Amino acid sequence: MDDVARRAGVSRALVSLALRGSDKVSPASRAAVERAASELGYRPNLNARNLASKRTSTFGVLINDLHNPYFPAVVDGIKRAADEAGYRLVINSAFLDEDAEVAAIDAFVEFRVDGVILVGARCGAAAIERAAQAVPIVLVSRPLASDVVDTINNDDHLGAQLVVEHLVSLGHEHVCHVEGVTGAGGPERRAGYVETMERHGLEPHIQPGAFTEASGVDAAERALDDGRPVTAVFAGNDLSALGVLDVLDGRGLAVPGDVSLVGYDNTFVAALRHIALTTVDQNRQRLGALAVEALLERVEGGRTTARHEVIPPELVVRETTGPPRSLG
Amino acid sequence: MDDVARRAGVSRALVSLALRGSDKVSPASRAAVERAASELGYRPNLNARNLASKRTSTFGVLINDLHNPYFPAVVDGIKRAADEAGYRLVINSAFLDEDAEVAAIDAFVEFRVDGVILVGARCGAAAIERAAQAVPIVLVSRPLASDVVDTINNDDHLGAQLVVEHLVSLGHEHVCHVEGVTGAGGPERRAGYVETMERHGLEPHIQPGAFTEASGVDAAERALDDGRPVTAVFAGNDLSALGVLDVLDGRGLAVPGDVSLVGYDNTFVAALRHIALTTVDQNRQRLGALAVEALLERVEGGRTTARHEVIPPELVVRETTGPPRSLG
DNA sequence: CTGAAAGCGCTAACAT
DNA sequence: ATGTTAGCGCTTTCAG
């Protein structure tokens, strides 16, 4: 930086200002600085900058599992909003390991990021709340009643309700639900399902599941062997719906002819023409954007109380749902 | 840090050594330091550390497109190898935008990461080679003849050969290839296909494509309407194979009964039971691990010449390939 | 094994 | 509009 200053014939401070686009620099010196910098191939040292300015203009994003097709859209939303607000992103993934999650959060803290967004984090609330003392944290897709961290979620209860209403309106009475896991919307979706079924005077039929393809397979097999009639399946998420779909196929049951099928999340797999799964869209981009917004409110707006946002999801009807056979 | 030193009754330098696990610290003072640090909730400032030590023990990983199911496995491999070597990771995604890619690389340079891994980068070679003057760079899944950056790739030519051999050994003579894009193995796969077809005295039948589902749909429609017989399709990657699959389904053609289908990449979608696509596995974890290895050789081993690694892929036979109907 | 001192490369008042 | 002066929090000689 000294070299740049010398070459441009100005002081270091001026170089600093010019390079950051301050308006208190004359066009002439700015040009000189920029030319000198590029001639010298100068790259500012972010570590030094962050150290001196005591801020990083960076948000840390932790993705629970990079393999899960649920996450990219959320990150897209975060990225877009962060760009707009002038914040950089550092992304990390914990690869499903809770300890790694905590370690990654610690690393963010040590980097002195200005805010942390945890997407689908599975680690304990205690670890999160502890870290929240050092940096603003917002949780996406992980409900948590806390008054130190913000949360942004879709309304799983409503989503489930939309699904059941859709199936019921098609004429279904025997809708089976494949459960999902706790901490990722499973119980909320289940509750929405049960409540809506009962409101229509229908009997809930629930099979345990775990948001995985394999669990969808198991659940479908149990459901079909169970004896109770099943004309539609509401799987807890898209992945488990694919497991269900495979079993239906394997048993020669037409979809939606014999059995209708609905997933949740609207991942790209659901949109594949070959699958064309009816599902629920959480508007993940918006979830991400809201997370950034929440962070900005704390970092730049000085908010200190927790904000818990819940946004309405939307039903996406594709080709796996139709009237039950009995209504032809 | 001063506080920690005071509380532990030692000097700052000692704290620094103790916290980084140096062996020149007495167990007693180490314990005192650790206790003091945890009591005070002390978090070292990575920016200060990086600045003072002139290294970050961090590798930057740039993923071309977070949505592409191809990448996570590569990052897994990188993560594992980096962990083992004691390096931290910062991941970033360019979301398919070339300018964003260059910006992300610049950001890595400014962070002074010790090395950069570009996974499937699409940006110009010039930008990459320029950045390579500031930091060691290795390209994964992007062939590039360069003597300043390392590359790690699977052998696309061999992969295509494996596919054609498999289909020919099943009795197929009319194998159509849906092309992929340049810079991501497309031309190499095509060349392997053409060469192997010709070696068997078969006539190549190529349809343009772009590694997307939609391009697979278009290519399949053209291929089936073209007049030439088609008993098998070798799609450039899994995604385009899904497009082909949808067209085959739509036209009532059984897979593999009427037409066999093969993809490339072995993404999780290919492994879904409902799809069960025969495909080629690049061993992406290994690609990632090798990338870290290459970086370590430069950072710690002092290598300065480029290394270009090509690893053999493996055919994964699932349920979309079988003998042609004529051999029934 | 420990402590003192210098400085990593930058920003942020404060002067001018 | 531009230069001066202190640090930011840590690591790293170098002397004890």
Outline of the structure:
Two copies of one chain form a homodimer. With 328 residues, chain A is α/β, with parallel strands linked by helices. Chain A contains 13 helices and twelve strands.
Description:
The structure is a homodimer of 328-residue chains. The first copy, chain A, has 328 residues and is α/β, with parallel strands linked by helices. Chain A folds into three domains: 2-44, lambda repressor-like DNA-binding domains (434 Repressor (Amino-terminal Domain)); 56-155 and 283-312, Rossmann fold, CATH 3.40.50.2300; 156-282 and 315-327, Response regulator (Rossmann fold, 3-Layer(aba) Sandwich). Chain A contains 13 helices and twelve strands. In chain A, the strands form three sheets. Chain A has a six-stranded parallel β-sheet with strand order 2-1-3-4-5-11, with helices on both faces. In chain A, α1 crosses α2. Chain A is elongated and about 85 Å long. The model of chain A has no long low-confidence stretch (mean pLDDT 94). The interface between A and B is large, with 47 and 47 residues. The first copy, chain A, binds a DNA duplex (16 and 16 nucleotides) through α2 and α4.
